[in-house]
Amino acid sequence: xxxxxxxxxxxxxxxxxxxxxxxxxxxxxxxxxxxxxxxxxxxxxxxxxxxxxxxxxxxxxxxxxxxxxxxxxxxxxxxxxxxxxxxxxxxxxxxxxxxxxxxxxxxxxxxxxxxxxxxxxxxxxxxxxxxxxxxxxxxxxxxxxxxxxxxxxxxxxxxxxxxxxxxxxxxxxxxx
Length: 176
Prior knowledge:
It is a single chain. By secondary structure, the chain is mostly helical. It folds into 2 domains: 4-89, Rna Polymerase Sigma Factor, Chain: A; 92-175, Arc Repressor Mutant, subunit A, CATH 1.10.10. It is built from 8 helices and no strands. The chain has helices at residues 4-12, 16-37, 41-58, 68-86, 115-124, 127-138, 143-150, 154-175. The N and C termini lie far apart (46 Å). Mean pLDDT is 84; it is low at 92-110.
């Protein structure tokens, strides 16, 4: 089995076998990240492909400091955000009037849900909500960082996150 160091060295030399090794070892993990940001599997596959190209082309920028996986995750997240911006005009948005605000945390379902049910609900989120929710709740970015990444106001990030939580809670109540 080829080691991470061999994969890195090979990819620096544009060795196809090393690139294949990188793909085989990390594509599942990276695809999981892409799926969280995409509206469907083909879009996630597009984001993954763009991300892998960026990883292969910029692997020389990896300093060896910190986690290689973390370095790749950041590329995938940034690629997903770029993809989101490029395709913004093609997305369907829910009008703000259609989103009813509720007190966060009120009437939260107390039963457990399967990962498939949770993924289905996350996939239903409007693109703006989904991006902010993923960046804040899953990736751990602060609203200020999210605002800069998505080129939105900090308050917009906070309200999108709040609306995403409300949306998720309503869907979870229906599954109850």
